[in-house]
């Protein structure tokens, strides 16, 4: 049976590219027993994920091993990639893996911190691959860490141990930006400049897919509250929701853009899509999560670290956990951040150099940006809570036509009232914490 163009590239050309990309592998080594599969459960909204394995033998025969890998490529038509800013997102992701992470790792070489935030990179390149397709492509090859015991956490509701581990993990990643800033490291400006802007609103242009999805998510919430006014159970909450609706009711994307404001102290090179579906956990013998790897840097930006925190916290915490652990998780992050900073800079935690990142200014910054996670949750939580067949409908219509009536319909009804009530709970919590203050300004 004749292989198609893409399969031939992935099974014949890509393995050789991998050998030349990795300095510890012999570029002239022998390749055999190439296996390629595309598991349905790994398919993403904007990417296709393949599993690739092959037997490698160095040219002198001293090294023989089987490489087990994950290959991530963009999918969709040029029109779909344009509306979803796929080219920018996936090119930025390649940049993070091939430029930013190595620079951060170099920063950590003599600090005692591991910096192994992600699966190992075996190949990453963006551009045109004529033997693969006629489109602009990004090809990213990572180690398949599932054989090492890494697994996805619960689909929606993480446990406290997961949440704390995620807080510590992303804190050490963010600390690298701050350490470079405090050291006046000239590399930082260059690293930031290399990230293509991923703005929600730029001049008269909007991020089309997000504009539609955020409106649909907000419309669902407002419709539910109109039908159930008793959910606005306090004057403060009612006032906050009225302010949000009046100022950003038809343009929630404008609020999201406002929250991307650069800050000379707190902006970091962030993950941007730090959530349960973009991390894998490894548990100990008792089942407690003890290690974490993150991936999918498509939405990375240079912006507030609160994006990486409030997204996964609002998405993955039940009301009971929010009430019991919200402040503790925020404090866990901040404690790990200061510890990592002090370790990288080789100063005591009490050193005045770290004063800009003390708890009080951090909490003030957090409060002013926490609505980012709230608004993302309005659009994304229904997708994660609804039954699989409804999620398939959403993914299908999203890829086919983001403006379609079908996507609007499924967004408004998926998951039913259970979703609506949980969304209201997120907004009610944000109101109680004072996060709506930014909406009044």
TrEMBL record:
InterPro entries: CHK_kinase-like, EcKL, Kinase-like_dom_sf. SMART domains: CHK. Residues 140-343 form the CHK kinase-like domain. It holds the Pfam family EcKL. Signal peptide: none annotated. PANTHER family: LD42035P, PROTEIN KINASE-LIKE DOMAIN-CONTAINING. This is AGAP003236-PA. It comes from Anopheles gambiae.
